[in-house]
Amino acid sequence: NAGVMQNPRHLVRRRGQEARLRCSPMKGHSHVYWYRQLPEEGLKFMVYLQKENIIDESGMPKERFSAEFPKEGPSILRIQQVVRGDSAAYFCASSPLSGYNEQFFGPGTRLTVL
Amino acid sequence: GENVEQHPSTLSVQEGDSAVIKCTYSDSASNYFPWYKQELGKGPQLIIDIRSNVGEKKDQRIAVTLNKTAKHFSLHITETQPEDSAVYFCAASGGAGGTSYGKLTFGQGTILTVHP
User: N or C: which end of chain B has fewer CB within 10 A?
Assistant: First the structure.
């Protein structure tokens, strides 16, 4: 059973470009969470999605950031007009159910903004 | 919202010694407390978790204790080995006024180094 998959693993963008990060949850998991980890810091919650629904986006910046989890295909975290402060590791986690259940993390996408 | 504090930030032990990492949380409604191990360049790996109806849980060399009254929980690693060296994160979820979704609030992390 494959784990959570994220791609690309490394992404380099110049300021002003768009970054698109993809996450495929574990088989049978319909809940996806995105977290951001700044250098030498802990993980910060960004957004929680179920298929075709955003459940909680309280951790996501109001501008330039968006997320989706379509009925078919991976979850996408999109960052428009990237700035240097967006450089971080972005992790996706999936869970089979909502509530107090285990979340399994992918390997992350390391975004570098030049 | 929930706030999780983790101590120490770095921990250095000799192989075979025990290591203890402590976390406190602020939201008394939190019900789920996982611990993750993160190796360099990799994603966090769930190593053990505990729910609020249990005071202690053990899995081989790893144990977690929870004190709901004091709102703190701890990770205990016995007989440490060099491969235990990593960053360890505690987390809490289940609060937010009873909303039963799994948003995790993480501690700041502990860099554990086990010297051979």
Answer: C
116 residues of chain B, pLDDT tens digit each = 889 999 999 999 999 999 999 999 999 888 899 999 999 989 999 999 998 887 899 999 999 999 999 999 999 999 999 999 999 999 998 755 444 467 899 999 999 999 99
Find the chain B residues whose C-beta atoms sit closer than 8 A to any C-beta of A: 6, 31-32, 34, 36, 42-46, 49, 51, 89, 93-94, 100-109
Cα separation, B116 vs B113, in Å, equals: 10
Q: Which of A103, A104, A112 to mutate to test the interface with B (most CBs of B within 10 A)?
A: A103
To the nearest 10°, the Cα dihedral for B99, B51, A38, B8?
140
State whether A4 and B45 contact (CB < 8 Å): no
